[in-house]
Structure formats: C-alpha cells, structure tokens
Design brief:
124 residues, Actin-binding Protein, T-fimbrin, domain 1
Amino acid sequence: MEYGYTVYPDEYFPSAQEEEEEEWDRQAYLDPMWEIQQKKTFTAWCNSYLRKVKCSIENIEEDFTDGLKLIQLLETLSEEPLPKPDRGKMRFHKLANVNKALEYIESKGVQLVSIGAEGIESFQ
C-alpha cells in the first residue's frame, strides 16, 4: 500500500515570528487608541495640503462625504484641475462629486478595491 503526501512550500506555514507579528498587527488594528492616532495623523497630513487652498478638515469621517474637500485635496496634491464639482446639497450631487474624485484616482493608475462613492458618502 502506498501513501501519497503533498509537500507545501514554506510560505504556507508561517514561522513563529511571522505569527507573532501578524497577531501584533491584528491587535494594533483593533486598538481604539491606534485608530484615533491614525485619524489624527491623516487629518494633519490632509490639512498640511489643504492649507494651501485655505481649506481644512476636522473629521475625516464627515468632511470628505460630499466630495468637495476630497476634490480640493486631489487638486492640491496633483497640481492638476479636476472636473468642476456639483454644488448641490442632495445625495446624488455628493455621490457625483465623490465619483469624480475616484475616477481621477483611477485615471492615475491606482486600482481601487472595495471603495465606492456610496461608502465614502456614507463613510462605510
């Protein structure tokens, strides 16, 4: 009787150190203080660019939802004009603005995975 077996490359079996690092990363991502610090850091980074156009954000969960400041940030970062944003206050105006920003990002070769206008507009 012969017994068959399969040999897997080492990448299928992480080392103890890799498992510890992965666990540390997972805990860091779940740590509310880490999340707060990330939001503060990202907000400060955005404001360092938005300041050039006399604009700022206070809350990343709310301030990009209408797409207006997101478009301003992208224009400042890229030093290129984006399509003119819709100025209406209705949800479809906000979605259109966020879509303009996302389409610009994609036009620069950035692949967006699981990111859509609806998620940003409602911050999900």
